[in-house]
Amino acid sequence: MSSSETTPSDSVDSVPTPRGPVDSSRVPRYAGPATFARLPRIDETGGRADVAVVGVPFDTGVSYRPGARFGGNAVREASRLLRPYNPAQDAAPFALAQVADAGDIAVNPFDINEAVETVEEAAGSLLDTGARLMTLGGDHTIALPLLRAMARKHGPVALLHFDAHLDTWDTYFGAAYTHGTPFRRAVEEGLLDTSALSHVGTRGPLYGKRDLDDDAKMGFGIVTSADVMRRGVDEVTDQLRQRIGSRPLYVSVDIDVLDPAHAPGTGTPEAGGLTSRELLEILRGLSGCNLVSADLVEVAPAYDHAEITSVAASHTAYELTTLMTRQIAAARG
Ligand SMILES: N=C(N)NCCCC(=O)O
Ligand SMILES: [Zn+2]
Ligand SMILES: [Zn+2]
């Protein structure tokens, strides 16, 4: 397929021209194995990527429906339809910097502690090459080792967390590492800049009012899904941007932030969520933020229909990737 990939012409001095996606006008987009957006595998770019898309097929941390271990590959399949120019951000993301698919991290499904260590190590190795990460989960447990790797590189990071759930609960069945607890652990470990923590899209029943009190004590601000509906995307995005400022920013998107009408394929669905249009617009509004890496988690394709969820997820990852490549290109001048 290498003879049919798009070859962007606007290379920057001393930076190799990025190798782009397979050209879908010459090779049918449904042909061949799936990589994210039909981009090259990282072994096809000499192990080099400015943004590495990496899968984490792991769902041992879930409290309800399993299946997010298949999420990354479902997103890759759905991403075959993405195109090289992103009009909403006026950018050709894969021409601005090298985005490559780094494959999957092979994590132990029978041992959460070991899995968490494996993710941290693999993420750290990719970050050490200079890449930013666009991680495709997997359940939300993986945000903890990803944030450990981020903090090691950047120090405590600002967090923008899109999710129906707080994910700052303490333990489930006595277990500290679950998909409902990563951000409490991250605060406890000092991985986050507690002056810039926001949940967006929060909704649904809680265990008690104390969940909110604990969350606020950790430093989180909450923009509920009803806030997005009442105040609108622009006002909410302005507020989030002010809170983030120029800090290194990590974005974690749990696909259940979307209403089940927009993302049925997930393990812990909650009614009354964001539309995919709202999510994509808020993300686009982050342009200029110092986005150091992002994850997209909790896609569970067994509950999906007509790829509704994985298509929304692929577009979410596309907007996040575009933000990162724009920033990389701007820094190169
Ligand atoms: N989907 C994520 N990440 N967390 C949901 C935890 C919901 C619960 O079982 O209380
Ligand atoms: Zn959630
Ligand atoms: Zn979550």
From TrEMBL:
<dbReference type="GO" id="GO:0008783">
    <property type="term" value="F:agmatinase activity"/>
</dbReference>
<feature type="region of interest" description="Disordered">
    <location>
        <begin position="1"/>
        <end position="29"/>
    </location>
</feature>
<keyword id="KW-0378">Hydrolase</keyword>
<comment type="similarity">
    <text>Belongs to the arginase family. Agmatinase subfamily.</text>
</comment>
<dbReference type="InterPro" id="IPR020855">
    <property type="entry name" value="Ureohydrolase_Mn_BS"/>
</dbReference>
<dbReference type="InterPro" id="IPR005925">
    <property type="entry name" value="Agmatinase-rel"/>
</dbReference>
<feature type="compositionally biased region" description="Polar residues">
    <location>
        <begin position="1"/>
        <end position="14"/>
    </location>
</feature>
<dbReference type="InterPro" id="IPR023696">
    <property type="entry name" value="Ureohydrolase_dom_sf"/>
</dbReference>
<protein>
    <submittedName>
        <fullName>Agmatinase</fullName>
        <ecNumber>3.5.3.11</ecNumber>
    </submittedName>
</protein>
<keyword id="KW-0479">Metal-binding</keyword>
<dbReference type="Pfam" id="PF00491">
    <property type="entry name" value="Arginase"/>
</dbReference>
<dbReference type="InterPro" id="IPR006035">
    <property type="entry name" value="Ureohydrolase"/>
</dbReference>
